[in-house]
Amino acid sequence: MNTAGPVGDPIANGTLDFQLAYGDCDVVGIAYFGIYYRWMERCYTNWLFANGLRSGELLDQIGVVTVGVNSSAQYKQTVTVFDRLRCQAVADRIGTSSYSVGFEFTRDGEIVTKGQMTFAVRDADFAKASIPAQLREVLATLPAPAFEVA
What's the pTM? Predict the structure, then answer.
């Protein structure tokens, strides 16, 4: 079964749009800092799925597993309940046995939060492994970062 989305499909291109609700915010309606990690993971796993890879089935699909080893977020602007955000996955760093995916959260085209998740690649015995060609090809489809964040 082909799970990849059609060309131009936003999630296949690493784009996820969403609107904040009260459950994403603290008591005064400001986005809770931890919600960005949930949206990064959702953007990442849906992007993989749209490109034919299932995060939890990579060992069967391509012979490796990926392990999250680092994550971070930089908060640049206050975000509040009912704001509409776009999360864009971007190619941050692709090494030989690990890679980092960046996440640019924007509101009306302006950066509000910059996130990152780093993954290590491991074989069935959990030993360090090279990024398989199929995964490397999918990672290469991510756009370059659009925002410099210091």
Answer: 0.91
